[in-house]
């Protein structure tokens, strides 16, 4: 409720063959990876920063997941 810039359908995460992707669902306020807006399916890497609205999330994989 405190971040109206993020809709319930803002983006989605997809896990495929041990790879994690982020996809922006044509959101008004965009989805950012490492400060850059994404347009297509984007492969996330360990340590990437995901930006949604005013929030930032660090992507961290456990070593056994790499």
Summarize the structure in words.
This protein has 66 residues and is mostly beta strands. It has no helices and 7 strands. A hairpin with a 2-residue loop joins β1 and β2 (19-24). The chain is globular.
Task: Looking at this protein, list some descriptive labels.
66 residues; mainly beta; four-stranded antiparallel sheet; three-stranded antiparallel sheet; 42% strand; globular
Order of helices and strands: EEEEEEE
How would you write the strand order of the largest sheet?
4-3-6-7
Helical fraction: under 10%
Mean pLDDT: 89
Structural class call reads mainly beta
Indicate the low-confidence ranges by residue numbers: none
Largest sheet: 4 strands, antiparallel
Radius of gyration: 12 Å
Number of strands: 7
Overall 3D shape: globular
* Percentage of residues in DSSP E strands: 35-45%
What is the straight-line distance between the termini? 34 Å
Number of helices: 0
């Amino acid at each position: 409720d405190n971040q109206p810039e993020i809709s319930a359908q803002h983006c989605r995460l997809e896990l495929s063959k041990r790879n994690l992707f982020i996809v922006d669902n044509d959101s008004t306020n965009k989805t950012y990876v490492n400060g850059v807006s994404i347009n297509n399916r984007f492969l996330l890497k360990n340590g990437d920063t995901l930006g949604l609205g005013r929030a930032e999330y660090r992507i961290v994989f456990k070593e056994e997941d790499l």
